[in-house]
Design goal:
By secondary structure, the chain is mainly alpha-helical. It folds into two domains: about 20-70, no CATH class; about 80-125. It has six helices and no strands.
Length: about 130
């Protein structure tokens, strides 16, 4: 038995190579202060305009506001009407099936392909 295991690959443990990143909040705060002071000095010298310094904040705020406006659109009226039409059709079909039986089912099998044929025909005319 040991002889066969010489020719097979022996599983090894997985090695995990993790290099931790060092986060220094004081250094990051100092870099932010230096960048802010440089912007202020550039503003005093007239090298940069103020709208360039806060441009990323304005763009971000504008994106959030635009997103909020897009999501608050008026609801589409066709979706509830379509849902109501489907439910009404199913209710009428169920009542007709319970009243008259299988002939209603066969007539439905004849009407549905006709409906899709006419719908596809109208779509071809539009394009």
């Amino acid at each position: 038995m040991k002889f066969l295991s010489l020719f097979t690959k022996v599983p090894e443990h997985q090695r995990f190579n993790y290099v931790p990143r060092y986060y220094d909040p004081k250094k990051e705060e100092m870099q932010e202060r230096v960048a802010r002071i440089k912007r202020e000095v550039e503003l005093e010298k007239g090298m940069a305009r103020e709208n360039e310094t806060n441009d990323h904040r304005r763009r971000m705020a504008g994106a959030f506001q635009a997103s909020r406006r897009r999501t608050q659109n008026a609801p589409d009226l066709q979706t509830p009407l379509l849902r109501l039409g489907i439910l009404l059709f199913l209710a009428v079909f169920l009542i007709a099936y319970l009243t008259w039986g299988k002939p209603v089912l066969y007539s439905l099998l004849a009407v549905v392909p006709l409906y899709f044929y006419l719908r596809l025909k109208s779509l071809k005319r539009k394009s």
